[in-house]
Write a structure and sequence with these properties.
8 helices; globular; Mitochondrial carrier fold; 254 residues; mainly alpha
Length: 254
């Protein structure tokens, strides 16, 4: 939906993909997505959880600062897999002569280095880092702030699953619109075949081809992915923390 010129809805895009390429075309880029989750996503969660121990947990701006740093650092690490992931997602929507035909994430990384040079692994890196900062703010920092507020005003216990669900839902609903414009620019930058990588003003003009709603093109499928993903991530995270975590102030046995 981000790169095609036609103004298709999500349902039309799904039907067309299944009709022309089969059901499994909806899972293009799965290997790159999994590797990205295990590296970039895991790292930004770890950096944020570690960093927030050194700031005032009741100050939202402090958490935003930690989330920004964690997102940028993790974004730098995840640029190559993000690049391959993005290209694999959109490959079937391109004319056949422009397709890259990556078989999996490792084949994609190899072909980028072989055909374009290893520096090309970092195409769109600035957009990816900004997106990393915004999504960490929108997910992690907002989740913690929402959890703190809901716990206080709704008088919920810290281990309440209801608290975890509504806090993660709040984070997902705010994170989606916050990240969508930079997500679109990142996708356009990473998939372009222009020799100079393309210009930012051209990407912006293309993004706005449908008017102001171009800023949020693809927002519905993005939210449909982000909402369950964010809820499952934080609910599972909290359960692991409660059952397998530890407290630094637990007295040590003699």
């Amino acid at each position: 939906m981000v790169i095609v010129k036609q103004d298709r809805t999500m349902a039309q895009t799904i039907r067309l993909a299944i009709k022309e390429h089969g059901l499994f075309s909806l899972y293009d880029g799965l290997s790159a997505q999994l590797l990205r989750q295990m590296t970039y996503v895991a790292l930004r969660f770890h950096l944020y959880e570690t960093g927030k121990r050194y700031v005032d947990e009741y100050n939202f701006l402090h958490k935003v600062g930690v989330a920004s740093v964690a997102g940028v650092v993790a974004g730098c690490v995840g640029i190559p897999t993000e690049l391959v992931n993005t290209r694999m997602h959109v490959d079937r929507a391109l004319p056949e002569k422009n397709r890259r035909n990556y078989r999996n994430v490792f084949h994609g990384l190899y072909k980028v280095i072989r055909d374009e040079g290893w520096m090309s692994l970092y195409h769109g890196g600035s957009y990816s880092c900004v997106r990393g900062a915004l999504i960490t703010i929108g997910q992690n920092a907002v989740y913690d702030q929402a959890k703190m507020n809901y716990r206080y005003y709704l008088e919920l216990k810290d281990d309440s699953k209801v608290l975890h669900v509504i806090s993660s839902l709040t984070a997902a609903l705010l994170c989606g619109p916050l990240c969508q414009p930079i997500e679109i620019l990142k996708t356009l930058r990473m998939t372009t075949r222009a020799p100079d990588g393309g210009k930012a003003d051209k990407f912006f003009s293309y993004m706005m081809r449908f008017g102001p709603r171009g800023l949020f093109r693809g927002a519905v499928p993005s939210l449909m992915r982000m909402v369950p993903n964010t809820i499952l991530t934080f609910v599972l995270f909290e359960q692991f923390r409660l059952y397998f975590g530890y407290y630094d102030d637990v007295p040590k046995a003699d």
